[in-house]
Amino acid sequence: MSLEYTPKQLKSLNKIFNEFKPKPRSNPLIFAKKYGILSAENSSITGRFVPIKYQEDILIDGSNSRIEKLVIQKSTRVGYTLILKFIMGYYIAEDPCPQLNFHPNDTKATDFSKKEFAPMIRDMKIVGDRISKQRSENIMSHKSYHGGFITFLGGQTPNSYSSATAKIIHADEYDRFPDDVAKEGDPCSLMEKRMESYHDGMVIL
Length: 205
Description:
By secondary structure, the chain is an alpha/beta fold. It has helices at 7-19, 28-35, 53-61, 80-93, 106-123, 125-128, 158-161, 187-193; strands at 37-38, 47-48, 69-70, 99-103, 138-139, 142-145, 148-154, 168-171, 202-204. Strands 3-9-8-4-7-6-5 form a seven-stranded mixed sheet, with helices on both faces. A two-stranded antiparallel sheet has the order 1-2.
């Protein structure tokens, strides 16, 4: 006995089967090359992102599950913040998971969310479409998406480091963080504690 399907049924079955196909292996570099946009608010050159060699290496390592701590020694104005944004976007759109983003203080965290992250999710539709549209889940300091969230935090007080658990934790301007946070430890150690429940978590500094 053979089964015969109408064209409409075959189209529906193909759509279902395609959902179960393994997705091509990706990483933040592939993601950034395909979807990365330079926003007018943050770059004198706008449009499609074209990475420089040293940026490629950092982006690739941004999803290397064998790396627990990714420390980037750099000078100023080398595109580190841009790299961080594309890594954030990757973990929102391609490999969703909880993220914490730390800054030297609360004002810096708010400024980043408003001036860096907001233009990115506006210009990169693949990221912006993943962000929840519910007002309670889409505020300046916290954005939810299917499979995770990203929270923007200042790094001056212990409360910031006990706010949540996350798989991916990144810090901008780490050299401006205090050496010790209210006698509870250095910022990096406190960040690492927030990802202890993840075997493949990463801290990016």
